[in-house]
Amino acid sequence: MRCVARHIAWLLVLTLWVMARPLAAQNISGYWEGKLAVLGDSLTIGVFVEQGDSLRVELDSPDQFAFEIPATKAEWKDSVLTWKISSLGASFKGKLSDDGQRIEGTFQQGGSFPLVLSAGHERKKLNRPQEPQPPYPYSEEEINLKEPQGRYNYVSGTLTLPSTPAKALVILISGSGWQDRDESLLGHKPFKVIADALTRDGYAVYRYDDLPKAIFQDATTMDFADVVVKIMDTLSRHPKLQGLPIGLLGHSEGSLVAYLVADKRTVDFIITLGGVAQPIRQILCYQNAAILIADGATCEEATTSTEESDRLYAIVEKAPTREKAMKRMRKYLEKGGVRSQAKTLGLNPKQLQHQAIQTLCHPWFYTLFHLDPKPYIENLACPLLAINGQLDLQVEAEQTLRLMRTYLDKQTDPDYSFVDSPLARHTYRLIPSANHLLQTCKTGSPNEYAQIEETIKPEVLQLMTKWLDYLYPEK
User: Fold this and answer.
1) Three-state DSSP class for 294?
2) Is there a contact between 399 and 300 (Cβ–Cβ < 8 Å)?
3) CATH of 138-279+371-471, one of 3.40.50.1820, 3.20.20.70, 3.40.1110.10, 2.60.40.10
4) Angle between the 190-200 and 458-471 helix axes, to the nearest 10 degrees?
5) Considering the entire predicted model, what is its pTM?
6) pLDDT by residue (tens digit) across 136-155?
């Protein structure tokens, strides 16, 4: 479920919209670019600056297919440009050269790295043809939820409303890891594309940023479900949404969140994209082996790695508390467990021990190891549309759909075709040549995600609108 990467992600997830002092003599407007040396490799960093009454700065990481991404704080003073990204523990400070062609400084994130930004580069742009562009044939409304003391926004999101009375409200729930309201990933904005398609078809859609990062870092899947419940309670009181059916659309882990919400509140329908039906231990084992083989590992290497990982998963799954899971895992690793992975990752045993314990015994992961989707799916009282990509290497697609159908319809027909299944109250659809993001792909490897221009197969968008229209036909 969590997107697996083989390299350390130095993603600068920032949008700098900051105020700075007007400058009389120096103007650094333009696009600046430099190379950041990271672990023997180089990473291109781009900075777009637009200077006027205020200073607008955007950061790009073209090598990671990340563009126009937001930051926290910046200042331009006495020929020195600084910025700081608190959520990432990253910062930069650099001085403009005498000829005005370079900003020479230091980038910090887990260490200090020299970074020289030079002027005059052409800004790169990814081609994402499906991304909606204004003007839209519908209205947008910013809706934020304050935390109980009203000190800050607990949830921030966008509600899109069709020009005619909405047929239903759809709340979009993102997958694992912190996501913004568009579920932005590698230049793609799948939730923005989905919201646009559904709203054009007459449905109100609410998409939202995940919890503030300081809170998100300790949150679990159960907490994410509580957030959705609060969103439902708030939106149900909106003047244009009162009395409307409310459904949930969950991608990846978001599907599990949707099941949990349906166990707490009345939900009128659920749509899952790359959704889950297996316990996390099985999902991770499938994911580990499938991606390693897609990336060139032999079956023997993939099997060895997966078996070693599964021993750690079993420890966490069987431990009655996080504390016992950490103790048992530390004991196992000190005896030399997962040696091959340490070698593959270039980590010494102590580093691997720390990384494994911090990751698998984190409250979020520990909770997932103790959440079985089966009883929640069996208890669903609402219609379900489950869509999975045939080449998904993060969730075992056909097995997932088969389990969903078994749990809900008590049907175990081995010859049932999920590719051309008919529209029904519960519809299970396998999309050929599609990956975990439901893009048209060749192998399904996460390495393809950024290279594919398509954000989501049009077939998937059409299927969602047809199924919703099946539930809520025009009167």
Assistant:
1) helix
2) no
3) 3.40.50.1820
4) 40
5) 0.84
6) 999 999 999 998 888 889 99
